[in-house]
Design brief:
Blueprint: E1 5-8, H1 18-26, E2 32-38, H2 50-58, E3 63-69, H3 77-83, E4 87-91, H4 98-107, E5 111-116, E6 134-138, H5 153-167, E7 172-176, H6 184-190, E8 194-197, H7 199-202, H8 207-215
Parallel strand pairs: 1-8, 2-3, 3-4, 4-5, 5-6, 6-7, 7-8
Helix pairs in contact: 2-3
Family: Belongs to the ribulose-phosphate 3-epimerase family.
Cofactor: a divalent metal cation; Co(2+); Zn(2+); Mn(2+)
Pathway: Carbohydrate degradation
């Protein structure tokens, strides 16, 4: 059994010091860099575009886990590959032709993830679960960092884990939003493989120690 992975969310880092923050993550026990891309349409906020991702990539030696909270993600798949994404996650709610989008991501040689908003039932993934490398469960409403965790997430993770096992899928379960050392163990016990932590890491006194704490929970 592999130990769980930690993917600190750059959204909560100090944007003025992205190089220093990237080097800190390189020197930590973090497994992935989690990068949220928001367009101000799908969610009410704007974040990084390709140039920023490219710039961070120069200073990183870890997997780039890019989470697209944007409408029409198909238009940008090749661009995100070029910017350095290793894993590209799209929102179920933003894709009219999800199967086609997944195939397009795979065709670029990236790992493929699908994210679900808190109100979306995991059953929508039943027909494609075996095509996915990752399912991202939003445990807060997407768009802003620092929100509090939605308790129904545990139940959702358990049900998703059962589905993954039932279909023989190799998809990892990633949790994004409100993850702290208080709920990390319960999430892992429910079936989570990857924990995204933003403000809990970057607002802590010692982010490297906080990542270590989450990793060893």
């Amino acid at each position: 059994m592999m130990s769980h992975l930690i993917a600190p969310s750059i959204l909560s880092s100090d944007f003025a010091n992205l190089q220093a923050e990237s080097e800190m993550l390189n020197n930590s026990e973090a497994d992935w860099f989690h990068i949220d891309v928001m367009d101000g349409v799908f969610v009410p906020n704007l974040t990084f575009g390709m140039p920023v991702i490219k710039a961070i990539k120069k200073h990183s030696n870890k997997t780039f886990d890019v989470h697209l909270m944007i409408v029409e993600p198909d238009k940008f798949i090749k661009d995100f590959k070029a910017a350095g994404a290793d894993i590209l996650t799209v929102h179920y709610e933003a894709c009219n032709h999800l199967h086609r989008t997944i195939q397009a991501i795979k065709a670029e040689g990236m790992k493929t993830g699908v994210a679900l908003n808190p109100h979306t039932n995991i059953n929508v993934l039943e027909d494609i679960i075996t095509d996915l490398d990752l399912v991202l469960i939003m445990s807060v409403n997407p768009g802003f960092g620092g929100q509090s965790f939605i308790e129904n997430t545990y139940k959702k993770v358990k049900a998703l884990k059962e589905m993954i096992v039932r279909y023989g899928s190799t998809a990892l379960i990633e949790i994004d939003g409100g993850v702290t050392s208080k709920n990390a163990r319960q999430l892992i016990d429910a079936g989570a493989d990857v924990l995204v932590a933003g403000s809990f890491v970057f607002n802590s006194e010692n982010p490297i120690n906080t990542i270590k704490e989450l990793k060893n929970i």
